[in-house]
Amino acid sequence: PRIYGLKMASIEASMACITILLKRVMRFVIGITLNLMRYLKTWDKSYKKKLAAPEVPAFILSLIHKKRSFP
C-alpha cells in the first residue's frame, strides 16, 4: 500500500517488525514442540541433540549476572 508521511511509515515499519518477530518465535516454538514430540515417541538421540540448548558465551553470562546483582 502507499504510505504518506513519516508517521504512517513508522507505523508500517513497526508492524512489519512485529510480524517478523512473531513469525520467528512461532517457528521456533513449533520446531521445539515437534522435536520434543518426536523424541518422546521414538526416543531417537538425533531429536535429543536438536532439543539441547546452545552454550551461552561467558561474556553474556557475566552481563546477565551483573544486571542481577543488587547494590
From TrEMBL:
Organism domain of life:
Bacteria
This one is known as: Transposase
Native species: Aerophobetes bacterium
